[in-house]
């Protein structure tokens, strides 16, 4: 299985009054991890959009385990948890600077036409990308 890693330097603006990363910012970090994984597989989400397609989020689940604090570094690990040619579920783990698990999460997406939001099969419109996702899960 391909697992991508992205390091994040926690910025002050990402924290709450307690000095820990505000919970909604983890979803932004998940996007950074997902983008890194896609690039590691040799593709760019921006190119998909240029071709008239988007990949909206249809579900997100997050389990918060340990805080990440301002000034620390965190690592986002991202992989493809499930993929059926239409829907893809990405798995994530954010680790603290000490290596503790901060969150465990998933996000599910579909590929859709940008003008209509109608889901399409990636295997039909992006066959190379489809194959890369299948290989990445091995």
UniProtKB/TrEMBL annotation:
CDD domains per record: 4HBT (cd00586)
GO molecular function: fatty acyl-CoA hydrolase activity
Alphabetized UniProt keyword annotations: Hydrolase
EC identifiers of the protein: 3.1.2.-
Gene3D superfamilies named among the record's database cross-references: Hotdog Thioesterase
Signal peptide: none
Family designation: Belongs to the 4-hydroxybenzoyl-CoA thioesterase family.
Name assigned to this protein: Acyl-CoA thioester hydrolase
Organism: Oikeobacillus pervagus
């Amino acid at each position: 299985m391909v697992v991508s890693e992205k390091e994040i330097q926690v910025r002050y603006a990402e924290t709450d009054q307690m000095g820990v990363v505000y919970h909604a910012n983890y979803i932004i970090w998940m996007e950074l991890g997902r983008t890194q994984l896609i690039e590691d597989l040799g593709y760019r989400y921006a190119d998909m959009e240029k071709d008239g397609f988007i990949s909206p989020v249809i579900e997100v689940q997050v389990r918060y385990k340990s805080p990440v604090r301002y000034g620390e570094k965190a690592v986002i690990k991202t992989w493809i948890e499930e993929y059926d040619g239409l829907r893809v579920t990405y798995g994530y783990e954010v680790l603290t600077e000490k290596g503790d698990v901060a969150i465990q999460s998933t996000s599910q997406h579909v590929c859709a036409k940008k003008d209509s939001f109608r889901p399409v099969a990636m295997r039909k419109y992006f066959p190379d990308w489809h194959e890369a996702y299948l290989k990445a899960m091995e």
